[in-house]
Structure formats: structure tokens, C-alpha cells
Automatic annotation (TrEMBL):
Gene source species: Platanthera guangdongensis
Keywords: Cell wall biogenesis/degradation, Glycosyltransferase, Membrane, Transferase, Transmembrane, Transmembrane helix
Cellular localisation: Endomembrane system
Identification of the protein by name: Cellulose synthase A catalytic subunit 4 [UDP-forming]
Predominant cellular place of this UniProt entry's protein: membrane
Amino acid sequence: MAHTGLGTTLVTIQVYLGSQGALDVVGKLLPKLVYVSREKRPGYQHHKKAGAMNALVRCSAVLTNAPFILNLDCDHYINNSNAIREAMCFLMDPQLGKKLCYVQFPQRFDGIDLNDRYANRNIVFFDINMKGLDGIQGPVYVGTGCVFNRQALYGYKPPMSEKLPKLTCDCWPSWCCCCCCGSSRMSKSKSKKTAPEEGRRRAMGGLSLFRKKKKKKNKKGYVAGLEEIEEGLEGYDELEKSPLMSQKGFEKRFGRSPVFITSTIMEDGGLPEGTKHIVVIKEAIHVISCSYEEKTEWGKEIGWIYGSVTEDILTGFKMHCRGWKSVYCTPRRPAFKGSAPINPRIDCTRFSDGRSGL
Ligand SMILES: O=c1ccn([C@@H]2O[C@H](COP(=O)(O)OP(=O)(O)O[C@H]3O[C@H](CO)[C@@H](O)[C@H](O)[C@H]3O)[C@@H](O)[C@H]2O)c(=O)[nH]1
Ligand SMILES: [Mn+2]
């Protein structure tokens, strides 16, 4: 039901196919379908679509914690039964997968008139610009037809890759000592990254928690934002902070749900062994209550970002800024389709309704 921002809606969670489940024609258990409606009350911002998405992310983390999330607008549908498989080929790729925040598909529409009078195809954007971006850090997130890596929604950074030998001058690799050995920068960077420290970092699942980059100034006062320095120290700040983060920091970022917080550090998703239904249902209701996000980082640093008419662009940029890459996936048969606005009035109404949360 639409919400005007004035009334009240209560939490609804309906699990279709129930606790017994149901089988498909070949006897396999069908996935459950869960309908979720969050709580809204006067005096509490619901943040429209971005707020709805954040509530869904938390609720699903508590109920199943699947590591990947497909986001589709309510006026879009799946048009290619291989769509999810296409995305998973990237997200589960042994080399590339762990660094990907999302796989974005182009938006395609039904009902476009012969001459595409209302420019629904958006050829320049979807078939030129987005392909170009795919060659850099990846396409922007366009709000629908996108499969996310759940970890990227939580403000974590992508895991670091093994380092290749570094060039210390224009022509020689770092093992060349003729002109560069004794460089304090390099030796500092190397001596800091000792094996036990590296081991501790790995033990943390390679996740960088909430680190603010410190800019280092060199003698001349220039900002020496050299990658080597940053990379040499990578993982240290957060290791020092992580014991403190465990309680207050996590709550400040994610809100006061220990079940949700636990789910965020399970890198491969899933629920802890022995999780009880009654606990998760209670917690699922808690995380979609209207005051849950107060004094947290939801919508500011994590999840779908608030405060813009196009929450999608900001959300994708946040991930790219943290170093994640994205992928543009364009199978021959469109993966998803939406219904095209067929006159300017419909387009304007849809636009203003969507932005005001109707
Ligand atoms: O209060 C709201 C308003 C919208 N929606 C959802 O947001 C979607 C997008 O809204 P729509 O009115 O369809 O806007 P469009 O302009 O068609 O959407 C494009 O532009 C939006 C803003 O950039 C993106 O969020 C969309 O994914 C993208 O398809 C809808 O389908 C709903 O699923 C909500 O959940 N709550
Ligand atoms: Mn739409």
C-alpha cells in the first residue's frame, strides 16, 4: 500500500510456503517467498525507496542472510531465466568475484512506440556510457536490475589482493637496489607488514572496518598520498580499533540488533548454526521498526544512501569510493524488463510520486 508520510503502517512479515515448504515438479524444495512491510509512523522519516531497501536488507540478513541480493523495481520483471546465473558467474568468479560490489544489467522496456518518442531506450546511456564505464571501475548503479554483494552494502572495503612486485623507479622493479635501496618509504611499508600481522588481518576475513584514510604529509608539506604508504598500513587502524568496534562501534554503525550485527561479519552469508526461528522473527520485526535507524549510519554511510532524488547513483558511488568494482552485464536476451511510460504525463506523475514516496 502506498504511504503518504502522514499515516501509520505496522510491521507485516508473511512467509509463503510456510515452515513445511513445498516441492517443485522434480521434487526439489522451493525457496520461500517472504513479504515484508516495514513500520511507518508520523514523525519518523521513512526515506522512500532507499529506506524501504535498507529495511529489506536488514530483515533479509536476519531471516536468511543470503550473500547476494537482486534488486528490482516494482514495475520491472525477470525476462530471462538465466539472468541470475549470468550475475553469479561474475560474483563467484574466483579471481574477480570478491572485489565486486554489484553486477548491473541495462534497463530495458516493453511498450516503446516505433520512434521511441519518449526516449525510453536511452541508447546513449545504456549502450554507450555504461559500456565505457565498465572499462574503468564499473557501471553506476541505476536502481533496478542489479545483483549486489551484501558485504558491499555494509561499508566494508573489498578484500586486498596479493601484491605484485612494485616499480620503485620508472624502469626497475623493487628488487633492484642500484638506486632505490634504503628508501625509508619502502622499508617502512615492508617492515610494517609482518607475517603475524598479515595473519591477523586474514583472520578478520580481510575486511577493513570503517577506516578513515589518514593523509600523510611529506617534509615539503605536500600530501604524499602514495599508494605504498596506504597499502603498507592497510589493515592496521582497524585491527587496533576492532576490539572497541565490537560493541559500541558496531551498534553506532548498524543499530542495536546483535543478531543483525553478527550477520554482517559472516562473509559468506548464512545464519549461525542452531539459529532459532522465534529469535529471528522477533529480530526481523525489530530491525524494520520505524526508529531502528536513529543514531546509526544507515543511509549516510551504509546501505542505500538518503538525501537525493536518485538514491541509486549515490549508493553505487559510495561503493566505488571504497574501492569496489562493478560489472555491466548485457546478455542478448534482456535479463529484466520494465514498462515504459507511454506519455509525458505518466512519466512526470511517476517521477514526482516516486520522489515523494507515494
Ligand atoms: O516511496 C517509494 C518510491 C519508490 N519505491 C520503489 O522505487 C522504484 C522506482 O520508482 P519509480 O517510480 O519506478 O521511478 P523510476 O523513475 O521509474 O525509477 C528509476 O529511477 C529511480 C531513481 O533514480 C531508481 O530508484 C529506479 O530504480 C529507476 O528505475 C519503484 O518501482 C518502487 O519499487 C519505493 O519502494 N518507495
Ligand atoms: Mn519505474
